[in-house]
Amino acid sequence: MPLLDPNLSYTFSRYFELGFEASELAKEFGYQLTRKTLNLPQFPGELDRLQELRERIEEVLPYVPLTNEFARREILISRVVTELIHYTQAELRIEYGLKVSNLLQGNLDYLLRVNAVNQLLVIEAKYEDLTRGFTQLIAELVAVDQWDRGTAVSEQPILVGAVSTGTIWQFARLDRIRKQFEQGINSYRVPEDLEQVMRILVAALK
User: Fold this and answer.
1) In contact, 98 and 144? CB cutoff 8 Å
2) CA nearest 35: which of 166, 197, 173, 203?
3) Residue 154 CB neighbour total at 10 angstroms
4) Average pLDDT of the chain to the nearest whole number
5) What pLDDT digit, counting tens, does each position of 9-50 carry?
6) Is the Cα dihedral 131, 79, 157, 151 positive or negative?
7) Which one, 29, 37, 84, 140, has the greatest CB density within 10 A?
8) How far apart, in whole angstroms, are the C-alpha atoms of residue 181 and residue 165?
9) What angle do CA 51, 55, 57 make, to 5 degrees?
10) 201, 86 in Cβ contact below 8 A?
11) Helices marked H in 89-182
């Protein structure tokens, strides 16, 4: 039995609500998914404002209850994402509307793109439940792959995406040639692992 009804419309956030297994949703769209410890490339250069960012985050955390997705996005995720612009000069789109088909449509929380090298990075913010967040991220990466396939697949054969609660970050990688997802079972904490998170994000856009 097909997982999806082709006569219905599905948004990215709907996949989160439906609670499909990420591997099952990937298979529905013709992709494979494996779960593994994911050791993504990390940017080796200097991050000249990393300590300043860490101090800003640590300063505000005691005073802001992170009890909803909006608070986590504003206080934690957006600070990390906007700092990426300093290191990569990426174009940032927030709540970026994307429609590939009735099965692949909705808003991407954060889409970063470096046009000079056709590098794309998708970040999905979640209050909790990273498992369902990953399912939503898979749908978003499939949509970005199909949307961008005509122009950038030869230059960016690997797409990287992240799902984050703000304090916890997990990553996925899509091999666009083989149509193979790798879902990282390892996670990073912010602010404790901020440097690793930032180096992974910067490397994804370089």
Assistant:
1) yes
2) 173
3) 10
4) 91
5) 999 999 999 989 999 999 999 999 999 999 999 999 999 999
6) positive
7) 140
8) 21
9) 120
10) no
11) 130-152
Q: Which residues contact 1 (CB under 8 A, 6 or more apart)?
A: none
Query: What residues form DSSP beta bridges with 188?
Result: 169
Rounded CA-CA distance 44/162 in Å is 20
- 138 exposed, middle or buried (CB, 10 Å; 0-12, 13-18, 19+)? buried
Rounded distance between C-alpha atoms, residue 73 and residue 104, angstroms: 23
Query: Across-strand partners of 135?
Result: none
Q: Which two tokens stand for residue 198?
A: 């930032």
Answer whether 0.85 is exceeded by the pTM.
Answer: yes
In this structure, is the dihedral angle defined by the CA atoms of residues 91, 83, 110 and 31, taken in order, positive or negative? positive
The DSSP element (H or E) to which 68 belongs, if any, is none
Supply the Cα-derived Rg of the chain in whole angstroms.
16
Q: What are the residue ranges spanned by the domains of the chain?
A: 12-38+56-204
What is 12-38+56-204's CATH number? 3.90.1570
Residue 148 predicted with pLDDT over 90:
no
79 burial level (CB within 10 Å; 0-12, 13-18, 19+) = middle
Residue with tokens 């499909």: 20
